[in-house]
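Aim 2, interim progress. The first record below pairs a target sequence with its structure tokens.
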Amino acid sequence: MGAVAIPILPSSDFAATVAFYSALGLFEAGQWPGQYLILRSAAGVELHFWYCADGLDPTANDSGCYVRYDTDAEVLALYESWAAAGVADGDGSGDGEEGGGGRPRLTAPARTDYGMVEFALIDPMGNLVRIGA
């Protein structure tokens, strides 16, 4: 098996983080309360979270990660699944990634000028999770 990079994102509320990502199909694979949280998808994607005890301003959080899939079809299927879970598209700002006071949001998939199909998710903590193939 080759190397795998796993993002570690901040969370000031593990219960809220678990609830949000559970609705998107990720499950809790481990938690050390007040320290660390591991979420995993059936496809094997892992997101790790460190506990931000000082609180976290979702509007000022600049943390993010990129999750790459092998095919456009996988990305589009994941987007459809997450959209069906009720995460709203965009936030009225035009690109769906700015503003919104930390409100979770999802951008529609688009083909980039560098040939990838991508969409983005902003979680309740303000973390950017970009998905692409």
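The second target in this work package is listed in the same format:
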Amino acid sequence: MHQGLIHQGKGLFAGGAPLKEAHAAMLMVHGRGATAFDILSLSGELENLNFAYIAPQAAGNVWYPNGFMSPIPSNEPWLSSALATLEGVISHIANYIPHERIVILGFSQGACLGLEFAARHARRYGGIVGLSGGLIGPDGTPRDYQGLFDDTPVFLGCSDVDPHIPKARVLHTEEVFTRMGATVTTRLYPGMGHTISQDEIAAVKDIMFSASHA
């Protein structure tokens, strides 16, 4: 199957303010086995009426089949299709909202995808949020991404014993994004499950406030 067709046309769902009226926007990327509606439900806790929330849907509720630290070729062509999907959504949002007021947020597999997309398309964003995620690829993957984040605020939150996301990968992601000019806040929560905490919600709200006033 052609890489562009795997996730293409599976749906783009929205919440919050209409894009034409919003002051800022959030691209929300769902996790493995979840849906766009699942991640959009988080917008109710974020409580920012100035934001448009946009969430694409993965084919079969999975952005790529294998673990995020598997060899990258083993996740193709799904991974390339997923990254192209996010690129298309960002381009769509940018017709209405400047990149400096766009926040990219993902959870779990969606966090990995969102972080990898941002690293490959580095620029000033309103913010980047990886909840229980890290950059994609096995240990030793070259991280020779081009571009700079120009002080984009980045939040990385994860359990220190997450069964899917090694703590070392979260810290490595922090290192890469910092090197690329992002302002990174990383919080590892002792003993937390594979979930989203209220402390993380508060951190996201802070990023959103800054983005909506950019």
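Residues 144 and 176 are 9 Å apart (CA to CA). This observation will shape the mutagenesis plan for the next reporting period.
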